[in-house]
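Checklist before submission:
- one chain only
- standard amino acids only
- sequence pasted in full

Submission:
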Amino acid sequence: MLEEYRIGGRRASEIAASVERGVGSGHLPPGQVLPPMRELAARLEVNPNTVAAAYRTLRERGVIETAGRRGSRVRPRPASTSRGSLRVEAPPGVRDLGSGNPDPGLLPPLGPALAAAAASGALRPGLYGEPPVVAEFAAHARAALDADGVPAGPIGVTSGALDAIERVLAAHLKPGDAVAVEDPGWGSVLDLVPALGLRAVPVGVDDEGPRAAEVEQALAAGARALVVTDRAQNPTGASVSERRAGELRVVLARHPGVLLIEDDHGHAIVDQPLHPLAGVTDHWAFVRSVAKAYGPDLRLAVLTGDDVTVDRVTGRQLLGPGWVSRLLQRAVLHLWTSNAVDPAAVARSYGERRQALVRALAERGVAAYGCSGMNVWVPVSDETGAVARLLHAGWAAAPGARFRLAAPQAVRLTVSPLALADIEPLADAVAAAAGPVRAISYG
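Returned file contents:
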């Protein structure tokens, strides 16, 4: 199989991306031995250190494994290996800033909502043959989307944002198609794309969202879909600004056949306004998860889009799980209508911690990014070393390899577990761990 697939690239990031494409397409199957580093370096006419760096990146991402003199080989089931498995476990006494969870103190109690849903179910049990989406749920969701300027479209319900993204991609694309993704971006999406047999094309991000010029380049090169996070981008905290949204709409208008997927998982935890891109292309989907504001275990997201996209997703859904529990839908509806979450207070709480950390790092000469949501992204010179030094200092950070394709090294810090009193000692530890970093523009 290796003779049929030629690994290419001149830089470490390009070589790593080439291997990942081969893994995602099936040309490099599980167990396939990769060329020795010096042999591949000679073939590509690059320094062996470049290939070594590429292989190190692939190991960090869980794509390959190295067994001493037996060389490097593709890991079993690499296309579905979660980047989340690259997390650093926090031993006793170490503060965990790497899990990416919301602050439990900001989540509403679920007891009243579940009791209300159960009471409704007792009056009218959910049975086969009923509409998959509760009418009151759909009406409330649609009204909220209308208020945010999301174009009209039917409402579907999925088991979280990633479930929606997977179903939309599968509804329109075929193996081998290219998908433009944010880099750095949500590790689960970076896992999902090759798992579907698709090819990820990285698009750079700054504080205002995906860079329009890089999106244009990716789409002009043949990417058939674009995935954008509107607010609280994971891991950088980017939020699509009005200016950037206008630039991206111009780009998308030149490529009407591209599938656009927008992820608004930051709804109800941010104070930045939404600037949706939907409606410019022929096919689009807008996904709004409840996980960050109401609790990850609810496993529910609202999906809207053009008629064809939503019809394909819900039609295929009926042949699998059928529907997302109507009891869960009614529980979420109760949370919405009872104002169980104060979005302004939640956004203020995350914002105070996030902004305080960014300021404290700036005072220590460390650049950090995070203009919305619950994460701060810190470029570092040596990602593995920085994570190890932070762990030694009592802080567990998320390695940037979980979120990167070609983007420079960094670590992600989630502010959810922090009190304001933690900011200064954490900033001291990060400054000591980061090392000298050349100027990088994320914002």
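Reviewer check: The first strand starts at residue 64 and ends at 66.
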